Amino acid sequence: MRVLRSIEGLAEISGPVVIAAGVFDGMHLGHRMVFETAQRESQKLAATAVALTFDPHPATVLRPDAVPGLLTPTPFKLRLMERMGFTHALVLTFDKEFAALQAVDFVEGLCAAANPLVGICIGEGWTFGNQRQGNIALLRQIGLEKNFFTCEVPPVRINGMVISSTMIRLALSEGRLADAAQLLGRDHAISGPVLRGAGLGRQIGFPTANLATDHLQLPPDGVYAVEVLVEGKTHPGVANLGVRPTVDQTRTRLLEIHLFDYAGDLYDREVEVRLKHFLRPEQRFESVDLLRSQIARDAETAREFLAQQSAAA
Amino acid sequence: MSALWHFRTFDENFGPDGQPREVYRDLFERLNRIPRHEVHALDGRLEATMREMGVTFDIHRELPWCKRGWFCDLLPQIFTPAEWEPLAAGIRQRLRAFEMFLQDIHSQKQILLDGIIPEGPVLGSEYFQRAACGVPSPGGAFLHLSGVAVCRLPSGQLAVKHHYFSNASGISYMMQNRRALTRVIPQSFQDTGIHSISDVPTGIVEMLRAHSDDADPMVVLLTPGPLSPAYSEHCFLGRRMGIPLVQGGDLLVLNDKVYMKTVSGLSKVDVIYTRLSDHWLDPMTFRRDSMIGVPGLVHCIRKKSVSVVNAIGAQLADDRAILPFSTQIIRYYLAERPLLPTVPTYWLGDVDQRLMVLDDLENFTIRILYGERIVLGGDGNLPSQEKLETARREILQNPSQFVAQPQTCDAETISFQDGERRRRRQDHIIFSLRQADGDLRVFPGALTRVSTTESEFTSSELGGGSKDTWVQAGEDSQHDEWDASHQADAQIPSHAVTSRVAEAYYWIGRYLERAYDLAGMIGAIESLELEELNPVERMNYRPVWNRILPMLEVTGSASRRTISNPEGRYRLTFDPAEPGSVLSTIHRAFANAESVLETLSLEAWGVMSQLRERFDAVVFDPTAPIETLAGTSREMCLFARQAIPQFFGTSKVTMLADDGWSFCEIGQLIERANITANATTSLSASLIDPAGNPHAPHAREIRLSAFLRMLGSRDIYRRVYQMRIEPLPMLELLWKNPVAPRSVLRCLNGCVSRIRESESNLSQSTSRAIGEIEALLQSIRCTDWESLLDSPTIGSAKPRLQAHSEDLLARLLALHTTICDSFLNHQVLIHGETETLL
User: Fold this and answer.
1) pLDDT of residue B493
2) Could you tell me which residues are beta bridge partners of residue B259?
3) I need a labelling partner for B826 at 20 to 30 A (CA). Which of A74, B173, B502, B608 fits?
4) How far is B152 from B370, CA to CA, in rounded Å?
């Protein structure tokens, strides 16, 4: 997938363009509906579908004291977009200057750069531009002048409730992984590069790979049965999310994963850890031996769970 | 579900009392008096007439051409004046409103700004062409030649089912149905006062010509080509309007103008009647993967150097998602009540309409927004549960791509099939024209589409057939009695043909001549085998056959052929896998003829079709008894020897002697010269007299006699020389006799005169081509065949006769390249009348 970093980058795409625009944190079922609409329309009009999003999350600029935990950091978001079949994404840097851009100028900029812009799809109620002046009405008004259609995709509801990123954050914070998965249309996952650690896991017989969790919306600390996607292949494993009170006094929150029957070197590789099932809360052990025994039991439980789930599927 | 199913349609022919409706009474009475076998015969004649006229609608291109003739029913559809006048007025009103709609959408979009219709179906339409905004349209209008599909609601009320405003597809079938039916049941026309539609092509071409300032504009019809199902229609229209049928590759944009490539250079094009969808029209503006458009065409339209009819952007009016808003559009722009209702149409992109339709799905026909595909219904049957579920799933996946109309909108009618009356369903496409003065003229006829045994759908693309449609003239109106003189074609000045057409004709000439010669050789051998030859004579013939054979070999042929046995000759005649067989060669000639159908006369096409059909009717079975193989080869080779000259003769008296025809003759002559020269060269080594062999002269005479017989020249030799066959006179006859039909010299002289005839002022490339041919002619004239025969070798090299013959043959074969380069691959030469390019 080609990632464009400025509005002018749209000029690189030859032929008409349909844009799916939004923040898309979570890439949940509601977002997927917006993407699918844009892709369908682009197919009909022999156009290129482009996913437009912002980095960082606009709240970091607009409401720095109330930034929500991220569900999908931008690199992960882009991977999910690519998986959905997008060939182009437009990631716009959201800083103070961009936040001051008038909504009209933003849309006209898109029109001027694309060859041509033939449609914009957004989720219902999405606003944009300085003072959030941009909305579906403005898009329609400019569209009539610039010859693009606007499509406001209605929200997706589950049990009468509108799917939203806020709802998913709440489910995660309360440890309701299954609920979050239902809203996301997939398991909640934490994605990022594997960090170099102190190698303590290897010393006690359970080599682990560590992932940073900064700025992420996390479920409760604890041990999870996980599936880890490494270079296109899924591996079963067990993970600990938390501050590792037995071996680390720095209280740094990490996601430690141990893959079953995996011997490769994971350092610096991008992995995607799908949280399948909560096994137990995090706890402090009196000795490393006790910790080792517990990890062995956790691994066994996780193995059994994943095997059962796999058989059921 | 079935409780909700309330299928009820209008009966076109019969009233509620079961008696024929007044308007059909006479026809039914007449048909009732005709015995069934005669009705069957009439039905067969109608079908044969359609095939003879070359009318097809090919929906399955994998099938051999002409397998699906156009179906026209014996029983016509009749509209009374009381039905027709309001219908025509309603169509005119609709066209006025949609013309204003298209103008508005491509400029101010006031109807959207006023919220009369939602912007989504308009700006999100596949047919909304942004590039059309601000582009000048011919005469300031989008719609010039339009169609509209109408049908009967259960009450009998006529209503609009679909717009074909941008593409009057089917207009030729309307005319062809009338032509065919007048041939089969002419009396009915003379007894019934109906409006004529014979001047439709003239009306169209007059309209097209009016869109150019030039007093004698070049008007062309742009077709996607023979792969289009309606190619037969494009050919018919091209022929009847007297305008060239061109494909994208025939046109070229240079210096902001569109040119047509012709054998004598480039000719400026002023008006294009396009049958291409906008998407494919210009790869520089629309779809970049279009291989059938004209790059730069939109730029030329902007420069006003060419007019394209219908205007780009007109297709938006045909989007089925717009159809439900017809009433609003008419009211908004005209402030009038719609005269003609629209069949209730529901766009499934709207949630409320979707829910309503899904709730009662079995009673609806579900169609896609673009094209003719039907997802559900449309066949008058209660759909199965499985079909319903499949359709429901497809709709829910992408609801905005579908519209729904009630199944009940197609009336029932009677149609004749094999002499039997059958119940069918029907609708009608009515065509109209915006005349040069802006008036809208609705042609008094229609393409009535009917379901058939093959297809329960009315749409031609889904296998439906048709009926001729009569519009009765009112008592107070001055109606046109049917008159054969009305069938005259438009009298429009002819123009030079395109290089593509000339090339196709060139190959028709070459392939037919090849098939003719090969059939002649095979036929001659079969005849020789029948004659009472002794084994020695046979032994003397066969080397000649096998020497001629290499010239017929094709590189890559699976196995070396032999014509020494009946099976080999049978294969060489009929094997479809053998690229050089008579059958394959005829197929190639046919494919070329098909690609220029619009320029062939119907008579010539009839001969060609018959040739192909007779050969295709032979079931290839090389395992049949030897007698059968020999008999079939003999019979069909004889047929080819009769039909091929018949094609050339018929063409000559029924077609314009234009560049196309000249190149057919040039191809024929070049091929004949090649075959003569090749055969003679292959024999040259054996012509040298082997000294001291007392039997040699007799054996040689037998061989030469066989040789001349295979080339169809034995009797000619005797008329010229009145002596036994000797090598020297034979060589002189075949190489340089000025009147012998097979002589190379005569063939090449013929080529030169055809080329000179086609150009009054010889261009540089024409002069060069003629120069090369004349140089070869000079070499042939100067050849001293006697001395070549007398001094057989130079040292250990090959005989001089053979070396010289091979040299002449090589130069002759090279003429093909000269002709292609000089005439058939024109890119930059410009016609003498047009300005010079910088």
Assistant:
1) 43
2) B252, B268
3) B608
4) 22
pLDDT value, residue B416 = 84
Q: What ipTM was predicted for this assembly?
A: 0.79
Task: Write the pLDDT tens digit of every residue in B658-674.
Answer: 778 889 999 999 999 99
Count of Cβ atoms closer than 10 Å to residue B113 Cβ: 14
Q: Which helix (H) or strand (E) holds A75?
A: helix A74-83
User: Which residues does chain A have within 8 Å of residue B133's beta carbon, measured at their own beta carbons?
Assistant: 147
| Positions in chain A whose pLDDT score sits under 50 | none
- For B4-50, the DSSP string reads G------BSSB-TTSSBPHHHHHHHHHHHHS-HHHHHHHHHHHHHHH
CB–CB contact B113 A144 (8 Å): yes
Among residues 150-169 of chain A, which lie with CB inside 8 Å of chain B?
Answer: 150-151
Write down the pLDDT at residue B757. 80
Does B288 lie at the interface with A, CB-CB under 8 angstroms?
yes
Tokens read off for B750: 């013929």
**Long-range contacts of B689-698, Cβ-Cβ distance < 8 Å, separation of 24 or more:** B689/B727, B689/B789
For A277, residues 6+ apart whose C-beta sits below 8 A from its C-beta are A177, A224, A225, A302, A305, A309
pLDDT in tens, B244-259: 999 999 999 999 999 9
Count of other CB atoms within 10 angstroms of residue B216: 12
Cβ–Cβ contact B398 with A under 8 A = yes
Quick check: A144 and B126 CB within 8 A?
Answer: no
What span, in angstroms and rounded, lies between the C-alpha atoms of B687 and B680? 10
* Residue B67 reports pLDDT greater than 80: no
Check residue B66 and give its pLDDT.
43
Instruction: Give the C-alpha separation, B372 to A41, whole Å.
Output: 20
**Which residues are B364's β-sheet partners?**
B406
Query: Could you give the CA distance from residue B354 to residue B403 in angstroms, rounded to a whole number?
Result: 9
Tokens for B125, please give them: 């339409």
Q: What distance in Å separates the CA atoms of residue A165 and residue A177, rounded to the nearest whole number?
A: 14
Q: Is the CB of B113 less than 8 angstroms away from the CB of A118?
A: no
Report d(CA A115, CA A192) in Å as an integer.
35
Burial annotation B733-755 (CB, 10 A radius, 16+ → b, else e): bbbbbeebebbbbbbbbbbbebb
Give, in degrees to the nearest 5, the angle at Cα B308 between B333 and B593. Answer: 135
Q: pLDDT band for B836, please (50, 70, 90 cuts).
A: very low
Token duo for residue A111? 């029109």
Cβ pair A147:B398 closer than 8 A: no
The 3-state secondary structure of B507-568 reads HHHHHHHHHHHHHHHHHHHHHHHHCCCCHHHHHHHHHHHHHHHHHHCCCCCCCCCCCCCHHH
- Cross-chain residue pair B126–A45, CB shorter than 8 Å: yes
Q: Which residues of B touch A140 (CB under 8 A)?
A: 119
**Residue B287 touches partner A, C-beta closer than 8 Å:** yes
Amino acid sitting at position B310: N
Answer whether B401 sits within 8 Å of A44, measured CB to CB.
Answer: yes
All residues of chain B having their beta carbon less than 8 Å from the beta carbon of residue A40 are 398
Q: How far apart are CA A116 and CA A133, in angstroms?
A: 24
**Local confidence band at B484 (pLDDT 50, 70, 90 cut-offs):** very low
A149 in contact with chain B, both atoms CB, cutoff 8 A: yes
For B251, the enclosing helix (H) or strand (E) is strand B251-254
Q: How far is CA A166 from CA A67, A117, A135, B254, B742, in A?
A: 12, 31, 20, 60, 91
| C-alpha dist (Å) from residue B194 to A256, B188, B474 | 89, 10, 9
Neighbours of B47 (CB within 10 A): 17
Q: Which two tokens stand for residue B785?
A: 């065949």
Q: What is the DSSP letter of B488?
A: P
pTM (2 decimals)?
A: 0.78
Return the number of other C-beta atoms located less than 10 Å from residue B537's C-beta: 18
